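Let us work through a complete example step by step.
Step 1: write down the sequence.
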Amino acid sequence: MQYRTLGRTGLQVSAITMGTFTFGGRGAFARAASQGVDEARSLVDVCLSHGVNLFDTANMYSLGLSEEILGEVLHGRDVDAMVTSKARMPIGEGVNDQGTSRWHLIRECERSLKRLQRDHIDIYYVHEWDGLTAVEETMAALDTLVRDGKVRYVGCSNYSGWHVMKSLAAADAMHGTRFSTQQIHYTLEAREAEYELLPLSVAEDLGVLVWSPMAAGLLSGKHRRDMDVPADSRQAAGWDEPPIRDKERLWRIVDVLIDIAGARGVSAAQVNLAWLLTRPAIASLVVGGRTIEQFEDSLQATELELTADELKRLDDVSRLPLIYPYWHQHNFALPRLSEADQALHASYPDRHYGGEDPLL
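Step 2: predict the structure and record it as tokens.
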């Protein structure tokens, strides 16, 4: 197992984090899976045996049942297993049962601690932006949780670039706790994070965790062009996240993954994860699964080193257009771009976006 430093902290996290989205199966989450304590224990055992030291959950996953199951599985073990959880999403019918107010965040953290049977949460994420709560209140509440010892580090998830920067500025202004990490959706198919979120993470030393790095299985090699949707997949059960806006582009990416995997004698899933582990600011990939075999396969991705040619093929088939203002920066500012800027621009090796010197 690889271990990577989480942003500017001294915390070492495994390059693969175990996702527990499938624990519980309460309500709509049954479309993903419905693993109980015994099944969850066997999957956690596999991850621990391979060196995974971070386990990801949230208060909304099966409305707390995922946390309960993870807490039961880890309780009493003499292992250095760290746990992340999240709050913000609706978890009830009450008017304060969602959001990032001080009232909601502190209450939900305390509820999560009880379900997890722990005295602290190692990384606590704001699960989604809340435009109705002052960012100063949100960051002050998170700072309180850290100062009270209930949380070790805080992060955000599913924020836009300006949301993250406004939050960091608020924390700095009050000399409070900053975000150490953000958890984002980022895959070969969904590379929009390269426009803002990855450069921001490099510039601000945020360690990035990636959720659904397999795009809900679509990049695993199990789904193919002109094939029926696998009967045991989330898609067959009606799960429609993440959205795929260009199906033909998806299948072109899958074709390259399968071709590289066949030549290397590994799975397409391993190639997909190995590509992500080469990207800027990435600390860990949150990987889920239904079976021991799926986890064992995914965990091997940390040992796969892709060649420069393989990385170029994957980059070429998946690269998004340079939207404004990035094409303009690529034409006129490239010699003066920072390491953070290069988290986007390095994927576009042509000196000028149009190919010709714009000044000639």
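Step 3: interpret the result. The beta strands are 3-5, 12-14, 16-19, 54-56, 82-87, 121-126, 151-157, 179-185, 207-211, 282-287.
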